[in-house]
Every structure is written in C-alpha cells, then in structure tokens.
Amino acid sequence: NASYNEIISYDSNSNTSMDTMSLVEAIDDYLFIASKNASSNTILHPTILDNVFNSINISINISSSQSYLMSVNPNNEKIIGAYFNSITYGSPLNQSTNFASIISSSVVAATIDDTYLNSISLLKMLIIYTPNDYLKINDSGKKNLASSIIIADLTSNNKNLSSGIPITLYFTIRYPQNITSNSLFYCSYWEVTNNSWSQDGCNYIGYNQTLATHVCWCNHMTTFALLWLPSSDTDNVQWTVRDYISMAFQALSILCFLGLIIHCIVTCSCFRNNIMDFQPNDLLPLISSGSTMILFIFYLALGITVHQRQDISLSETKCFSTAS
C-alpha cells in the first residue's frame, strides 16, 4: 500500500522531500491497515520501523484503535511513559496519574524513572496493539509473541543517554494460545544487528497480581515485546556447555576433598597407634574438608534439581546452574 511504500522510501533516503509529520501519518496508516489484514504478504520489517521511528524529531500525539504514537517533551506535564487499552486507546502517563488503576486496565504500558526527565527533550513511544507483522516473524528459539509491541526512544543533549535509559514495561497476554502455567516468559527486545529477538539487558520481573500484568525491566530503549516458550519445550531445559563444565569441576572438587580426607586419615593413622590418640589439630583439616565437600555436594544436587523442575523461571535456572 501507499503508506508502506512511503515508509520504505523514507528509510532508504530515496524520499528526501517527505517531512516528519507525513512520516508519522504513514506509520499510523500502515499499522491500522496491517492490523486488519493478517494474511497480507507485505511485512514492514521491525528494524525499518525502529529506524524511522527513531528519526521523529517533532512533538506529536496520535491515538487510534490499533496504535499510539507519542513524541513529547516530558517536562511540560511530567510525563513518565505511555499506555494503551482497547477502550480509550493510547495516552501519556504522568506522575499525577492513578498509576495502579491505569496499568491494571492497560494492554501494554511503559514507564521511565522521573529522575531522567530534566535530561530529556523528547520522550517517544509507539505502541502497536495488533502487531501482525511481528507475529509472522519466525524465532529460531521457538519463542512466540505473547503481547502487543512497544517501541521507545528519546532525544537528549546528554551523551550518556544516547542509548536510552532504563525502562519498566507492563504486558498483558494478547495471544494466549497454548500458554500454560509452566510456560516460560521472556522480556525481549528487537536486536537490529542480528534481526532477531534478544533478552540481553532485559529481566522478567514476574506476574504482578495486583496490577494483573507481566512486569519487565530493560536497561535500554528499543522495540520490546513479551515472548513465551511453549510448555512442551520447557519440560526439558537444555544444559549449556558452561553448565556441564560447572558440574564437572564441582564433581572434581568433591573427589579432591574426599581424597584429601582419606589421605589425612591414612597419614595420621601411620603416626598414631590408636584412633583415640588423634589431637584436635589433627581433626581440624578433616572437619574443614568434610564440611566444604558437603557444601559442594549440596550445590551440585541443587543445580541438577533446578534443571529437572518444569515450572522454574529462566532467571532461577541461570542463577543456580551456571558457574559464576
């Protein structure tokens, strides 16, 4: 369609006469059309949309039934983010907003820490309610899109904020097919270099019962979504090379400590006629080695147990199974 061609031309710099307002209107038109035509072969690649969105340099606030685009100076009304719901659509979030009520009724939302407001001249967020283009992306890790999409960016004179600032994200499940209680959720962002979803720099905080939403935290700004891994793929969590190396060295440490204990007992027995002749200074290294060996055995058993649990979260698995 025409809006798609305009966006592609703008991204490739072949349409130098197109102003920012026309670009914003083209984005809004395309997202509306794409939301109504899931079977279309036309896909606006996430990297292209991320690029053109980042180029927006004017104040604008456009809300529709399928998207919300905000580019504002956050200091004017102390705006700390944006949200979207299926009734009133998109709107800015400011410090005076009834936060809990807004978030609990939203499909997706994002907020930043208000301590950064004075350093930001433009806070930009684009929410895509029905992201059909993103649903068509095949993820090599078998992860599936579970939520709407939110793209965040900012303009600042502070060079330290060039890659963005930490952002908190709130997602409700938009695509619940086959999601079960033991499915794993991943806070993800679109990696423009590899053209794939990545979890680096993002943490899944968990499901907030009060807000009725999944909460994420990321240390930068880009395109975000909540992904999930089907339960059939989480039943057997795959071990990494680091996990095997960690377990091997722990087992080796246990054998070394066991050998040390046996060596101490045999050595001391050669110089003692009776086991009752053992002195306290003879027992100290045995007690130390024995207690350390027990701790290693406990850690080894804990790591194996974590891998066998089906309802474990990704962060817990990494915490217990990978050597630090």
TrEMBL record:
Keywords attached to this entry: Disulfide bond, Membrane, Transmembrane, Transmembrane helix
Domain GAIN-B: 58-234
GO cellular component annotations of the record: membrane
Pfam family, one: GPS
Entry's transmembrane regions: 247-271, 283-302
Gene3D superfamilies given in the database record: 2.60.220.50
Protein name in the entry: GAIN-B domain-containing protein
Annotated source species: Didymodactylos carnosus
